[in-house]
Amino acid sequence: MENIQNIDTLGGWMNNLLTSWGLSPKYADLFDETIVAALIILLAVGLNYFFQAIVVGGIKHYIHRFPHRLNTLLLKRKVVHYFLHLVPGVLIYLLLPLAFVRGKGLLDFSQRVCAVYIIVAVLLTVNAILLVLLDIYNSKEIRKNHPIRGLVQVFQVVLFFFGAILIVATLINKSPVTLFAGLGAAATVLMLVFKDSILGFVSGVQLSANDMLRIGDWVTLPNGSADGIVQEITLNTVKIQNWDNTITTIPPYTMVNSTFQNWRGMQESGGRRVDKRIWLDLETLRFCTPEELETWRRDLPLLADYAPEAGQIPTNSQVYRNYIERYLRSLPVVNQELDLIIAQKEPTEHGLPIRVYFFSRIKTWHEYEQIQSDIFDHLLAMAPRFGLKLYQGI
Predict the structure, then answer these.
(1) Which of 139, 165, 186 is the last residue of a domain?
(2) Domain count, the chain
(3) Which domain holds residue 324?
(4) SS3 per residue for the chain
(5) What is residue 251's predicted lDDT score, i.e. its pLDDT?
(6) pTM here?
(7) Which of 85 and 14 is assigned the larger pLDDT?
């Protein structure tokens, strides 16, 4: 209280001094009020630096000694830093009437500018808190299944939209309700400005509600524009890191309105599908002789107990298909609980296709490709043992 009285006394003393120098009372009042206002601002700014050094510095020292995720995030997102900016704003707002005792117009304008500063500090503080909550949520495993970055971005848009309305209303000295009522006429313009954000938000809700997309999913777009892992889902973009390490960004509504392939089901299942064909030359198909069957039983352990049905003479293609199935059944890498089908398909101009369909327990791309290549190398190399020739189209 004593400091306030001293400021008021200082202002009166300066006013008398300036008047005695021959300056008109109007300009003397303006000059001394400006000086007092500047002193108030310097006092507030000094207190702000003091609190920043004490509080923020103390938090840094505390985190250094006792690291904790919440404290670290509060410091990283500058929550305390923005909150402390309220101190000079509130202090200047309360002390300005002592400076502009006679200039009511300047007092009103200065307090409105100060109120804008306070609103901006509050907006930045609330926005920083939202980012802290997002960081905490993203550190949990659930964020892969239910990403909320897009939702937080919606809150940020709404927050700064309402903040902008309050700032404009404060500067023009109008009620915010009046401005909101006037926005009805500008709704069409706002829809055009925020079209992508609105579509992105609605699409993000659909993607999340229908569990169509998660962070970490492997997705493929049919036009070839993206084939890789989903890294981020935001209000306006889905970020996909392709296998060649390039990044593709796609609007969420594109994912909803068009088709895309999500490989999550394969990743969560017991195996990754292998579906290939071995093409045989039709001219090499024939019935087997008893001597050939005996030779295969002796030389190939997988066929040691093979015996055709009574009265049936198998073809070499039939025995080969039986060998393929037994070979795949013997491999630990093949998931025996899922479908395993060896089937002869319709002959074509490329020969007779033998469909080999099974699931590999190993789903990692590199190992998966190596496994199926090794398996088909063996099957292709074994075809001549059964008197079969592979069709090469030459």
Answers:
(1) 139
(2) 2
(3) 269-386
(4) CHHHHHHHHHHHHHHHHHHHCCCCHHHHHHHHHHHHHHHHHHHHHHHHHHHHHHHHHHHHHHHHHCCCHHHHHHHHCCHHHHHHCHHHHHHHHHHHHHHCCCCHHHHHHHHHHHHHHHHHHHHHHHHHHHHHHHHHHHCCHHHHCCCCHHHHHHHHHHHHHHHHHHHHHHHCCCCHHHHHHHHHHHHHHHHHHCHHHHHHHHHHHHHHHCCCCCCCCEEECCCCCCEEEEEEECCCCEEEEECCCCEEEECHHHHHHCCCEECHHHHHCCCEEEEEEEEECHHHCCECCHHHHHHHHHHCHHHCCCCCCCCCCCEHHHHHHHHHHHHHHCCCCECCCCCCEEEECCCECCEEEEEEEEEECCCCHHHHHHHHHHHHHHHHHHHHHHCCCECCCC
(5) 84
(6) 0.51
(7) 85
